[in-house]
Structure formats: C-alpha cells, structure tokens
Specification:
Blueprint lengths: L14 H21 L89 E2 L11 H12 L4 H6 L3 E9 L5 E8 L5 H10 L7 E3 L2 E13 L3
Parallel strand pairs: 1-5
Antiparallel strand pairs: 2-3, 2-5, 4-5
Amino acid sequence: MEAKKSPSADLNKTVGLFTNIGLAVAVGLTLAAFEYKSYDDSTLKDVGPVNDNFEELLDVPITEQPPPPPPPPPMEQPVIQEIPDEVEIEEKIDVNFDVDVKETTVIKEVVITEAAPVEEKADEIFDVVETQPNPPGGMSGWNEYLSKNLKYPTQARRMGIEGTVIVVFVINTDGTIQDVEVLRGIGGGCDEEAVKVVQNAPKWEPGKQRGRPVRTRMRLPIRFKLS
C-alpha cells in the first residue's frame, strides 16, 4: 500500500519563501554595513583666534623689461678708386754735385802692373790640365794595345768573374808611366793583370799646362768580359 503525505507536512512548499526572505535580509545587512558611519567623540581644541587674512591679495608689481639696445651703426665700406695702369709721375730731381772741378785738376794715371808668372813646381802633379795626355795612336791605339797584350786571368775565367778595373797612374813630363795603382778592382787576378799591362805600356804624349809639359794623373777603365 503506497504511503501518502499530508499536504500540511510538505516542506517544499515554503522553500522559495524562506530563500527570498534570507536573501533580502543578507542584502539589507550588507547595505547597512556600507552606510554605517562612526564619529570621534573627542573634544576640539581651541587654538585661539586666527589673525591671517586670506582674503588680502598681495600686490605683485609688473616686471618691466628694459628696451633692447639700439643696433650698431653700419660700417662704412672703403671706397675703391680705380687707378689707371699707366700714370705719369712728375717728379723734379735736383742734382747737386758738390765737387769743384777745375780745368787745372790733374787726374792721376792708373798704372796696372802685371803679376809675375807663377812658377810651376817640377814635381807637382796635375789632375786637370789644359792639354790632356794621349797614348800613341790616340785612344784607338790604346784599345788596340790592350787587346793584344791584356790576358784574361785563368782564375777569373774559371770563376766567371768579369767587370771593369779602374786604374790610376801618373804620366811624367817625358811620357813615362809610374805609380800605377788600382782604384777599383774586381779580383780574380784581373787587378794585377791591369796593373801589369799599364806599367808595360809605351810612352804617352805628356799633358801640358801653359804650353809646358807637366806631370799628370790619369784614371782609365780596363774592362774584362768573357766571350
């Protein structure tokens, strides 16, 4: 048999009412909490009368700016005057010769004495003379003499040495040659061969200074070249 409930005992009928009532009460308490104000009950202290008059306004004077200084006057530009290229300058020059020349004034004759000729020393050796010494037959004869008498040293040929030997020597007044030295050599026996050939050379025509034969120092190159 199915049990039946009494309508008065059904609790679901009042659930909505109590829910609305609880919601209304909660909202009311929340609003009351926000609107609640508290006041301090402490008494106010008397600090005396206030003499400051805030209604009075300070009169601030207007600052006056001084006027700007006047601008400087414009600079005067120099006037350029055109001068012609050709200008005639008239200038009077007074010439005053303070010399009393009389007809009886005698001018002394200037006598130029010729200096005595400088005697040349016999042993003096000249590097530069008016007339240079010359070998027999000129330079072509000298080259021919070297080609016939100059022998290429075996050591220099074997070592492949070639170059130019510069020989310096003195030619006496009679054309003989002395004081043969090597000024610049190349070695390998070429220096000794060049000295020997110059020492055995025939007499040269001596150099001359003022028409007189003098001793002259000569420098000649002797070239060694492998064929």
